[in-house]
Specification:
alpha/beta; Rossmann fold; 6-phosphogluconate dehydrogenase C-terminal fold; 3 domains; 12 strands; binds nicotinamide-adenine-dinucleotide
């Protein structure tokens, strides 16, 4: 596979393009994006080789075409580009719901050329400017092959995905859509509704908003995700989302009854069970819950405190992903939170700070 096509150069498509450019510099990358600005930037940066028009006949030269636009547009591109594919070429997508596109694949008779894909990576940001060549690294990448894809073809595509640092996993589209309803779609609905609830409950002085921190911020970070994308996901995976929402509502009603009855045993058991299950989740892969490589540091509130730490780390070539003061430390120790890109840089940073007698915490 030497020529890659990408439709939609946003967060995911842009990250796929940048990763191919880093890992396989010899590949030719053809791309089309609705906004010409992102397309021009990617071309100017050398991330893509050819900036194409919509339904450009040059896509027929591609060995693999990745559909990375919002799902409704992926469906339209599947129809037009499906006709352009050269023999042996594969068309894939990155959509967060798989049932809809597989239905279209069956209608178009592309069951032997289509392998659905869903990289379990992303962020609450969207657009090419947030795309990185590391977004997919160590992330599960679900593959949902069409019913007539041969084992050889699936195996070659599996290897291509593994070559860019992701962890391919083959599922049926039904298995995929139910699983993501539980671990991704429901959490987004919970985050969004919780934020809206606090907005409604807050008083005119907005005290809740001011002191919201720690747990509230952790559980609601994803409420900043793209409304357009989440509207589509809810519409496309309605049946599965409805089923897991029902189960969740039943659980909430049960919790409410037990809280009203001050049933300490039940409440203890609930938190104990969730803690045990949460702690058992494999956080080394970005699959379910991305491992955050975070160190907390106690520093005095004086000018230059953060700069001193940033300099110590920079002198050792350690990049900081995020750094910031924690204003509400109800559930936190340490004033300064430093997030690193990888475990290794976190461990090196921690050792450097401890050597300089900083008080550090890792959780
Ligand atoms: P994004 O908004 O960052 O990017 C979408 C890109 O598609 C933009 O550059 C936009 O200009 C372009 N575009 C829109 N309409 C187009 C069209 N008709 N033709 C060509 N380009 C078009 O969105 P994203 O987060 O990269 O999501 C893209 C796909 O990836 C979606 O299908 C989504 O389900 C899937 N996905 C997203 C995430 C995530 O966390 N963001 C994770 C996994 C999969």
């Amino acid at each position: 596979m030497k020529t890659i096509g990408i439709i939609g150069l946003g967060l995911i498509g842009g990250s796929i393009a940048k990763t191919f450019r880093r890992v396989h510099p010899e590949f030719d990358i053809y791309a089309y994006n609705r906004s010409s600005e992102a397309l021009a930037n990617a071309h100017a940066e050398g991330v893509i080789d050819v900036a194409c028009e919509e339904n450009d006949p040059r896509f027929s030269e591609c060995d693999v075409i990745f559909l990375c636009a919002p799902v409704e547009y992926n469906l339209a591109h599947l129809e037009t580009l499906g006709k352009l594919l050269k023999p042996g070429a594969i068309i894939t997508d990155v959509g967060s719901v798989k049932g809809v596109i597989h239905q279209k694949v069956n209608e178009l008779g592309l069951e032997d050329r289509f392998i659905g894909g869903h990289p379990m990576a992303g962020s609450e940001h969207s657009g090419y400017e947030y795309a990185t060549d590391r977004l997919l690294e160590n992330a599960y990448y679900i593959l949902t092959p069409g019913g007539e894809v041969s084992l050889d073809v699936l195996s070659a595509f599996n290897d291509l995905i593994a070559s860019i640092g992701a962890i391919p996993m083959v599922l049926t589209c039904e298995e995929h859509d139910f699983a993501v309803a539980g671990i991704s779609h429901l959490p987004h609905l919970i985050a969004s509704s919780l934020v809206n609830l606090v907005k409604e409950l807050d008083n005119d002085s907005q005290i809740m908003k001011m002191i919201a921190a720690g747990g509230f911020r952790d559980i609601t970070r994803i409420a900043s995700s793209s409304p357009e994308m989440w509207q589509q996901i809810c519409e496309e995976n309605q049946k599965n989302i409805s089923a897991v929402l029902d189960a969740y509502i039943r659980m909430l009603v049960q919790i409410r009854c037990q809280v009203d009855e001050k049933n300490g045993g039940f409440i203890y058991q609930m938190f104990e069970s969730s803690r045990n299950y949460r702690d058992s989740i494999d956080v080394d892969h970005q699959g379910m819950i991305g491992k955050a490589h975070v160190v907390f540091v106690d520093i005095a509130d004086e000018a230059g405190g953060i700069a001193a730490i940033a300099t110590i780390l920079a002198m050792d070539g350690i990049s900081i992903k995020n750094i910031g003061i924690i204003h509400n430390r109800e559930f936190e120790q340490g004033v300064l939170k430093i997030e690193f890109y990888e475990k290794d840089s976190m461990e090196r940073g921690l050792a450097l700070l401890q050597k300089r007698n900083y008080i550090t915490y890792v959780r």
